[in-house]
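call fold target=1-deoxy-D-xylulose 5-phosphate reductoisomerase
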Amino acid sequence: MSSFPQRLSLLGGTGSIGGSVAKVLAATPGRFTVEAVAGGRDAQALAQAARALGARFAAIADPSAGRALAEHLSGSGIACGAGPEAVIEAAQRDADIVVSAIVGVAGLAPTVAAFGAGRRIALANKECLVAAGHFFMAEAARRGVELLPMDSEHNAIFQALSAAPARAVEKVTLTASGGPFRLKSREEAARATPADALKHPNWSMGAKITIDSATLMNKGLELIEAHHLFDLPPERLDAVVHPESVVHGLVAYEDGSVVAGLAVPDMCVPIAHCLAYPDRVATDCRRLDLVALGRLTFEAPDEVRFPALALARAAMAQGGRATCVLNAANEVAVAAFLQGRIGFYGITDAVAGTLERVSGGPAPGSVAEALAVDAEARAVTAALLPNFAAKAS
Ligand code: NAD
Ligand code: MG
């Protein structure tokens, strides 16, 4: 891909990643045009994003928000649609690059709908791979898609993997910030409110991934993401806590060399890499200053205070539908925690309870199969939630 401008569609245009993509586009004038932008339910925010990006088409998933979207876009010349089919249309319009940044398994069908020969998919959404990684990777290969990891750890690892042939890889390590409860006792974390858990030390992100970072489920999801993206067995994947979030990922080779990816914790860096690959574009993000940082620290994750990591590892090792169930249960439990319906450890308790009940069975072989497993697991988790009701403090 070398002719400019390149046409880009942005799925999840009103979110945290969507905002960072907009920043990268603003810093690279003339390089990209925006074909389509899609969002969930906030018509005003979506219309604003579509106007700012100069999109040709805007799609909102919530069918009842269609009229408001049309009103907010009136006079702009931007076409629009509402409902899941409109989001699929946004994914399928003629574009060179599709950024997959819808949160949750809701991103699976639109991302797969965006697959096409020679098309680049810049993948921020990790739940696609956790829910249906085998199908997703096989389908991407079959359809001739160029898949680029936008998640910061995986982006760093993708870059580090170019240093040697895949057969020479001994271990791949992802770093985790440790989240807001890294230094809290289990008792303190157990009393955490949604507001406490939403205070991420290093990254500003959407609510769901911020809670996933507090439980460390995010790192568990990311191990599964790496397992599929890089075709690595679970035993070659590791996670370490690194509170500065400067080293994002490391690849250890059989000769003892370790190639790591470093950058300031700003999603504009992996976004710019994915959009410009294999070229580079200049970003205006803060530069890494190691002397100002002084030191970088690392520690082992505490699986007693953060049981999510072991749950995700067990689901990955079990294989089949287990990771799809893990993801669905986690989405339901995180939403319930954010609504104040369950306590902090209710999240991992609900995930564990769901896995115990419905994790056996084959890996989903299609989007429809993944969504069926997802729905079944969601119902089981929802029924378990009353057992983990938040205690009034
Ligand atoms: P967010 O909550 O800020 O944004 C989510 C976006 O998805 C919004 O635009 C929302 O309107 C849209 N959306 C929700 N449901 C939809 C639906 N059914 N159809 C269409 N659009 C829908 O989330 P985020 O933090 O930007 O994260 C997005 C994804 O990227 C997640 O999978 C997350 O794990 C991943 N990710 C995020 C970061 C980050 O720094 N924020 C880093 C790495 C990976
Ligand atoms: Mg990440």
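return ok
Residues 151-153, 222 surround magnesium ion (ligand 2) (CB under 6 Å). The domain at 6-150 is CATH 3.40.50.720 (Rossmann fold).
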